[in-house]
Amino acid sequence: MFTGIIAGTGTVLDLAPTDRPGVTRLIIDAGDLIADLPDGGSLAVNGVCLTAAPASAAPLTPGAFAADLMGETLQRTTLGSLGVGSRVNLERCLPAGGRLDGHIVQGHVDAVGAVLAITDQGGWTLMRIALPAPLAGQVATKGSIAVDGVSLTVTGVSPADEREPWFEIGLIPATLATTTLGETRVGALVNLETDVVAKYVARLTAVGAAHSAQTGETA
């Protein structure tokens, strides 16, 4: 589990297919952040929970993190579009007894959204992001969402009947300076993870409605 509080950024060193069908290896320079991370340990990269993999050939350089990306990861996230030199947000998993300063983030990206607008508000920045219609009901004003792994508060949402839904987030200078969101431009694609509680509420509501329809019961 993560909190969406970014510990630092890293730089992509390599992203290339392996000799195993459908598997791509990602290598990142994560610096001192992974000094005690063992093989099999978890690291969130742009909001995606990845497992540290052992070096497949030559030993990794100090501070390098390697992970194998499956087809599902490449399809659901933006990691496959990274290139050598790309900067990424990094977060270690939450230790037992650690402070939950952001919100509960699983590192399981739900979808990719496109940045629709970025507006300077003087002391802060407003960013509007599109999201798939099935996720619209899981995003609420004053609720939480992870954007490229960054825990953020939703400041506005599209009307309930909007055919192309969106949400807005407010970014303070510290967030822009310490995460990759400060480099994000209109049209960029970002990883989205909605709040886990909203997921369960949506699922319970859907199952309850289906059960009522099957049995003829009313809520």
Automatic annotation (TrEMBL):
<feature type="domain" description="Lumazine-binding">
    <location>
        <begin position="104"/>
        <end position="205"/>
    </location>
</feature>
<dbReference type="InterPro" id="IPR026017">
    <property type="entry name" value="Lumazine-bd_dom"/>
</dbReference>
<protein>
    <recommendedName>
        <fullName>Riboflavin synthase</fullName>
        <ecNumber>2.5.1.9</ecNumber>
    </recommendedName>
</protein>
<feature type="repeat" description="Lumazine-binding">
    <location>
        <begin position="1"/>
        <end position="103"/>
    </location>
</feature>
<dbReference type="InterPro" id="IPR001783">
    <property type="entry name" value="Lumazine-bd"/>
</dbReference>
<keyword id="KW-0686">Riboflavin biosynthesis</keyword>
<comment type="pathway">
    <text>Cofactor biosynthesis; riboflavin biosynthesis; riboflavin from 2-hydroxy-3-oxobutyl phosphate and 5-amino-6-(D-ribitylamino)uracil: step 2/2.</text>
</comment>
<dbReference type="InterPro" id="IPR017938">
    <property type="entry name" value="Riboflavin_synthase-like_b-brl"/>
</dbReference>
<dbReference type="InterPro" id="IPR023366">
    <property type="entry name" value="ATP_synth_asu-like_sf"/>
</dbReference>
<keyword id="KW-0808">Transferase</keyword>
<feature type="domain" description="Lumazine-binding">
    <location>
        <begin position="1"/>
        <end position="103"/>
    </location>
</feature>
<keyword id="KW-0677">Repeat</keyword>
<comment type="function">
    <text>Catalyzes the dismutation of two molecules of 6,7-dimethyl-8-ribityllumazine, resulting in the formation of riboflavin and 5-amino-6-(D-ribitylamino)uracil.</text>
</comment>
<feature type="repeat" description="Lumazine-binding">
    <location>
        <begin position="104"/>
        <end position="205"/>
    </location>
</feature>
<dbReference type="Pfam" id="PF00677">
    <property type="entry name" value="Lum_binding"/>
</dbReference>
